[in-house]
Fold these 2 entries.
Entry 1:
Amino acid sequence: MKPLIVANWKMNPVTIKEAEELFNSVKHGVKDIESAETVICPPFIYLPLLKGLTLGAQDSYWEEKGAYTGEVSIAMLKEMGCKYVIIGHSERRKYFNETDEIVNRKVKTALDAGLIPIVCIGETEEEREMDKTEGVLEEEIKQGLDKVDVSKIVIAYEPIWAIGTGNPCDVEEAQRMKEIIQKMVLKNIRLLYGGSVKANNAEGYLKQAGFNGLLVGGASLDAKEFVEILNNS
Ligand code: PGA
């Protein structure tokens, strides 16, 4: 199976001009790449502009429609051509109080609608220092994936201390965490690494640590760097 390289643009870019520049260079750079499956997760409003690429959403709501001001449903994302949806990103958990119970509802809704959830799990620096990493992951898995067919989902291991910090997890340590997660969930679960991935470290997570793909934040906003990550995958 080809590695799955997911670009999480988060709340970027801001202007239409910047957005168009990024779309064009990404579209151009991605079109000839056969070695990886590339998924672009832009802010919702840009989804229709990126038709032709494999798309994912950064979040979704579990109700199909109705009086839920500000929310976007899985049915809408499906209509926009999304194949994947990121669920439970640490920024959703931290800034929007998403719990494992919410994650669980969203994962089930996505699967019922035929979208592939990319479920993010990971520990904070403090939890790691207090030797709580495995307990935290176990809890996120137990509750977030309760009664979920795990063979149909993707998990992204994203140590929170490595996200956006320029301080990626060592490849050996990431590999150790990968094996722990596989034991907790399923040996052949599709597992991504995320957290300060750049062109110069991408290969280590895939080829050395054996992850099935990458979730890339900051570096995916630089089309040249992102295409280099794809070329190194
Ligand atoms: P980063 O973000 O690559 O900027 O560390 C990863 C993520 O949040 O998914």
Entry 2:
Amino acid sequence: MIGAMREVIVAANWKMHTTPADAGELARTIAARTRVAGVVRVICPPYVSLAAVRDALAEDDPDVAVGAQNVHHELQGAYTGEIAAPMLAGLATWVIVGHSERRRDAGETDDLIGRKLGRAIDAGLRPILCVGEHLEDREARRQDAVVDAQLRGAFGALGALEGGDPAAIRAAGLVIAYEPVWAIGTGRNASGADATAMAGAIRSTLADLGHGPAADDIPILYGGSVTSVNIGEFFAEPAIDGALVGGASLKPDEMAGIVARAGVTAAARGAAG
Ligand code: PEP
């Protein structure tokens, strides 16, 4: 039995691509090409395109959720250029937190990411928390320790906030994305076996962080150069519940292939459950 028959999720991270003028049309095209039973679909455009994507999907396919790519760790204040979680009301229902590109470019620490997670949960946003090791960590075989520390750092910071209770975190629909940094945007992906081993390590840390056996109910996505060609390797792994897709998520053909494969897993889980 796979957790409480965990959802199958494909989330698109458009990163710094699209404009409000073209994002709605791309979202509409992807939505139309990915209508597959049982798959939760999420599109995360840049902030400025959230409204365009929301409007396009509301008309065409309200089943596709809209997510933001980041959120600030404070509720309001003198933070030029930042967006607070409550400001996303009506624009997004999901949010990515702790993406490795933000850890790299904005110096985000686990503590800061934990506070973002708390703000997201308090605002009723469904969080996708990204974790993953660098190449040198994997080469030194310390990937599990790195990801364990990322999770403990983030959830430690979250513990101080209202949303820090494990049951509240699960009720918020927490999703973890395992994204080895060396696989993001490089065309080099981890193996299905690597992803499964890490999913086991993540669930064991989550169990230790107060989730106990319910850690099994938390969806874990793989991310890192996912394409319609390699997605099968990840969906063949029962521990993996979907994908966070970057580059390929801007290509409707790729998204169609990825979500079609996700649908096979969703159907199998539905039949088993
Ligand atoms: C990502 O942005 O989370 C990602 C995994 O990117 P890519 O698929 O391009 O490697």
